[in-house]
Amino acid sequence: MKVQIHTFANLRDYAPTGRGNFELSLAARATVAHVFAALRIPATVEAVILVNGRRADQTTPLAAGDEVTLFPPMEGG
User: Fold this and answer.
1) Structural domain containing residue 17
2) How many helices (H) and strands (E) does the chain have?
C-alpha cells in the first residue's frame, strides 16, 4: 500500500528524496513504526506524529492513502 509522508525540520533529513513530501510504499497492515523503520529514523529522535491530521503514535495502523505527518516537538514560550 502507498501512504503520503510529510516531514518537517530535522525530520526532513530522513526523507529519501531530500524533499519534505513524498509517497512511501509499505506492506499491508503497516503501522507508523514501519514508516520510522523504512526511513531509518533512530529511536532517539523525537517526533510529533499525525495520521490524517489526528495525533497518533508508532502503534497507529495505516491504510492505503493515509497521510502521515512528522515534525519535531515544539518548545518555547
Assistant:
1) 2-71
2) 1, 5
Q: What is the pLDDT of residues 4-51, one digit of tens each?
A: 999 999 999 999 987 889 999 999 999 999 999 999 999 899 999 999
Task: Kindly give the pairing relationship between strand 2-7 and strand 21-25.
Answer: antiparallel
Q: Tell me the residue type at 33.
A: A
**Residue 52 placed within a domain:** yes
Place of cell 523525537: 46
Residue 77 lies in a domain: no
Q: Which helix (H) or strand (E) holds 4?
A: strand 2-7
Please count the structural domains in the chain: 1
Q: What's the pTM value of the predicted model, to 2 decimals?
A: 0.92
